[in-house]
Design brief:
This protein is an alpha/beta fold. 37% of the residues lie in helices and 13% in strands. The longest helix has 18 residues. Bound molecules: zinc ion (ZN). Zinc ion binds next to loops.
């Protein structure tokens, strides 16, 4: 059950939309990646929780995600309380990730910032020995705190600390987003109304953003990230020798 990277998302599809390319690149590089969806997205205008669960399963397969759990903490009711923190702590102690990727610090959809704050608190408390949790067999779990925490960008932009090259994974990312067929690039809306994210224009701006941040870093496509508790720590300059952007 151990993973290298654990991604948190307020809604099923947030992970794919905002760091799907990075997930695909990491799994291709042999890293184990898990996704924790905090809610079922049941308040979304289009689709329902069962359909979105199936869509999330398909997206996980496309990206090579090895572990995915939905904590069902309540779409649009996301509360930062001890009960919800403990559900996250159980997952962190179960999967023991080295890196956690969480959502934007604040965003257009209030669940995004709320989900991020809840996750950040839980990630800290997960390292405290006196907060006791048990696994599904009733065995006591050991404390665990990830070494690194990153924020992915959501609807509202922020100044990123680095851009991850997803050029070879853009098509896979796109496929994983389109696995959420009720949510994005909906050609035939049927009886359901068009939403903020369902139109072709939304999808086009999403591609424009990947191209824009890729451009800034010297890649065709990129995903921007912020390092929680800056500055970003480096132990070698290898990363700068791997890549020579045009300046
Ligand atoms: Zn969302």
């Amino acid at each position: 059950m151990k993973v290298d990277v654990l991604v948190f998302a307020s809604h099923p599809d947030d992970a794919e939309l905002n760091c799907g390319g990075t997930i695909a690149a990491l799994t291709e590089q042999g890293k184990k990646v898990g996704v924790i969806d905090l809610t079922k997205g049941e308040m979304g205008t289009r689709g329902n929780d069962q359909i979105r669960a199936k869509e999330a399963e398909k997206a996980s397969e496309i990206l090579g995600v090895s572990y995915r759990a939905n904590l069902d903490l309540g779409d649009s009711f996301l509360l930062n309380n001890r009960k919800n923190q403990l559900k996250i702590i159980e997952q962190v102690r179960l999967t023991q990730p080295h890196i956690c990727i969480t959502g934007a610090p604040f965003d257009r959809h209030p669940d995004h910032g709320k989900g991020t704050n809840l996750t950040l608190d839980a990630l800290f408390y997960s390292g405290l020995k006196k907060i006791e949790t048990r696994d599904s067999n009733g065995a006591e779990q050991k404390p665990w705190r990830p070494a690194h925490i990153l924020h992915y960008m959501q609807d509202r932009p922020f100044e990123p600390d680095f851009v991850f090259d997803i050029s070879d994974f853009w098509e896979i990312k796109k496929e994983s987003i389109l696995a959420f067929a009720t949510q994005f690039n909906v050609n035939d809306p049927g009886d359901e109304p068009e939403t903020y994210i369902s139109s072709e224009n939304y999808f086009k701006q999403h591609e424009a953003r990947a191209r824009y941040f890729g451009h800034l870093a010297g890649f065709p496509f990129g995903e921007p990230f912020k390092y929680y508790l800056e500055p970003t720590p480096l132990k070698s300059m290898d990363v700068f020798f791997e890549h020579s952007p045009k300046r």
